[in-house]
Amino acid sequence: MDVELQILKRLARDAHPTVAIVDEYCAEYKDLFQEVRNYECFKYLHLGIISPIKRKSLPEITKVVSINSAQSLHHFLANSDWSVNKLKNRRLNKLKKALNGNAITVIIDETGDRKKGKKTDYVARQYLGSVGKIDNGIVSVNVYGVYANISSPLIIKVFKPKGTLKESDKYKTKIELASEIITELMESGFNIELVLADSLYGESSQFIRKVAEYNLGYVVSIRSNYGVWLPARQSVRANKWCKFERTFSNQKSETRYIMEISYGKKRAINYWEITTDPETMPENSTSQGKRI
Fold this sequence. Notes:
Layout: H1 3-8, H2 20-26, H3 36-49, H4 58-65, H5 71-78, H6 84-99, E1 104-114, E2 124-128, E3 133-147, E4 150-159, H7 174-187, E5 192-197, H8 199-202, H9 205-213, E6 217-220, E7 236-238, E8 242-247, E9 253-263, E10 269-274, E11 289-291
Parallel strand pairs: 1-5, 5-6
Antiparallel strand pairs: 1-3, 2-3, 3-4, 7-9, 8-9, 9-10, 10-11
Helix pairs in contact: 3-4, 7-9
């Protein structure tokens, strides 16, 4: 509509356009924002996220999308009257509709980002995977869905260390956060075929019970020195390593080695897969592997 006509009729102005793909995607969420400025900031953030800049901070996004100040983006995230939960539910429902009942693989991992100072909520000295050591930063448990070689973010929950909790907060471990996410996805109606996770979750009986509660298949890592307690008169049995070719989604293949391991009862079977030829491994050495 013509801008002058909008002013004369005292109608709300249209949001400034960005690029077609961003405008088309964000239009599905337009009704969640009462003010046009908030909707514009919503589009600017998406434009900044898909831009080639290395740091996705608000000041850097401000520069790449050519707006005057990062303050408007900060106000949008911190103080504007829009609902994060409504936005998340809308996004998940759209994704579920696009999947049309097809099964997905769920990947669970945690991400740590280094942060200076203590002004950001839930920042503390903790292990950050991005730098490979304990440092000052914030950690989140992230869950992604994979279908037909396309990955999509599903749910993210911030890990809140005990020393950073607010009065309304309840301390939850990363295992508890991941278990909550599995429950949320199942109750939302997602068809989950397989769950992938690293040893933090693979060695957690609480997480394995949660996955088993929904009868989901899973592939999780365990460390080479991970022990399992068995009832009396039961033992661990394993066959020999078998070589096979694993073909990846990009059609490339790699030689892998797999071993069948049963714990106690015969029906309790696990498979351990490694990337190194077991015949060439020095005694007492370890190789990157995973239980499948």
